[in-house]
Amino acid sequence: MSRACSLFQLCQNPNRLLLRSSKFSKGPYLIPSARIYPVLCFSKEIQTSAYEVVKGSYVPTALVKPESKPKDKSPENLEGVGAFQKLPMVMPSVDILYSALRKAKRISPTKGIANIAKRERNRGAKQLDALMKELAVPLRTYSENFPNKKYLHPYERSLIELTLGDGNYEEVLGKVDSLRKKVVSVGKEHASLCAKSLSKKEAEERLTEGIKKVEETFNRGGKHVDDLLHIAKTLRAMPVVDLESPTLCLVGAPNVGKSSLVRILSTGKPEVCNYPFTTRGILMGHIISNHQTFQVTDTPGLLKRCDEDRNNLEKLTLAVLSHLPTAILYVHDLSGQCGTSPSDQFVIYKEIKERFSEHLWLDVVSKCDLLQKSPVLFATDKGDDSNLELERYRKLGPDGALHVSVTNEVGLTELKSRVHEMLNSQMTRIQVQEKLEVLT
């Protein structure tokens, strides 16, 4: 019975030295290096533990946690359009600081502290902690609730890059989160110092100094909060596109009359002026026909140049055509008043037509009331009469193009009819595509 007790005690304390008897010597002797690990089961009541080698150490398997890989969103979980309307409301940095100071000063010491020095340091530590939290919580909310750009729909990702500048969105969010960490660090440091004060006067001085330091830290980075406020306003003002609704996109060189046609065709009211790049962003209108609502977008004009030389306005137009299911209404101005020669318009048109050939397409020659019998020639035009397609384009535009005039209201009724037909065809395309996605 005594041997069984000894074994049980050794199992409970594996670090004890083992005592053994030898037939060559009298009495027990020590085995100095022997250690017993609870691997074997000596009794039904004794629980066994399995061990595993982890980085050179023996660790119980129950404590070994498999390394968790960071979860990443699959393409199926990417955000749809409309993420900008879900952005949190960002307060100006001045308002955040004023609100935090006001709430922190209301904090009173814990009840029941009779000692004046203890009560004052308790109050100071609590107020500094409250100030730190009142500043850090909204900053954390912004960092967590502004979407990660790589999970946005490609259209909205392009809007961020082309409207705010490549990398600016992530940079501002990073600086706001960095500001939060600095505020937390300074706030905790001075709250701890205040809690260690030995007298009422020392606690009051450390409270005043701590508030000043936290305020200075926040003010140094407050500009980043205001930058985020500007970003939120800019993105929230972006037009929302319904991917399940057919969209008509007006494309062409600058000042060819796209905005005027948007006013005629839809509820959109874009600015109409006689100078290039009137449209400084994506403008959205709607067409309502037979109880159906269709979308119309007015896009910035395209110039004759390669993609590397295009400005962000032109890239916005290409982003709409690339990432949204649009039908294209391509507008041509052969009157010579838009500032882009018919020859250059022809080159732009051929390039866009080839690049987006899978889109439904309708060509419109605007300002037909100003067309002359002989084609307009610019000084930059090359006198190449061998290109018959270009010569025809200078006179009449592409084959099958519809000639319209907003001023004289020529061709507008037929234009509206053709647009409705094209949008109905686009609706059919979208429905077929949705059915295919469900089947696959």
UniProtKB/TrEMBL annotation:
Gene3D superfamilies: 1.20.120.1190, P-loop containing nucleotide triphosphate hydrolases (3.40.50.300). SUPFAM superfamilies: P-loop containing nucleoside triphosphate hydrolases. This is Nucleolar GTP-binding protein 1. Pfam families: FeoB_N (PF02421), NOG1 (PF06858), NOG1_N (PF17835). Residues 84-242 form the NOG1 N-terminal helical domain. Residues 313-369 form the Nucleolar GTP-binding protein 1 Rossman-fold domain. Keywords: GTP-binding, Nucleotide-binding. PANTHER family: NUCLEOLAR GTP-BINDING PROTEIN 1. CDD domains: NOG (cd01897). It comes from Prunus mume (Japanese apricot). The keyword GTP-binding applies. Residues 247-304 form the FeoB-type G domain.
